[in-house]
Amino acid sequence: GLMTTTLTKKFGEQVPFGDPMWYQGFHSPYYQEHHIRWRAKVRAWVEKELMPFIHEWDEAGTYDKSLPRRAYEAGILGAAWPKEYGGTPPEGAEKFDIFHDIILGDEMARAAGGGVIAAIFVANAIALPPVLAVGSQYLKDLVARDVIQGRKMMALA
Fold this sequence. Notes:
The chain is mainly alpha-helical. It has helices at residues 33-50, 54-60, 67-73, 98-109, 114-134, 137-148. Helix 1 runs parallel beside helix 4 (98-109) and helix 5 runs antiparallel to helix 6 (137-148). The termini are far apart.
């Protein structure tokens, strides 16, 4: 049968087959303690910084321009990026992994504001990787830290 573990406490709505198994207290070889802490951090930030305002921003077609910086200061915006450019991997994790990314997507989706979330998280996630992969050191030094720390936005055109 399926094993339960003290590592995964029940979380979420507890709808059978509606939440991931690890939310329901079942063992997962993939989700670790740092994933649980990451989920709690992202959920708290979404509830405080997004949910009270997202409908208003969505209707206005804009958002609070300090939001990316606040996401960085909370340890969320920089989580997926290299430490050398200001990245902030989740506490207790060696690096941001696919399961951190799944959790980030799940928790952001709870705010129901795709436009705002795309503007803050997706544009940089599309535009910055080519700079980090093949850009000159000068270009990386010029843009990476400011983008990762939420001071500048970036997009492919």
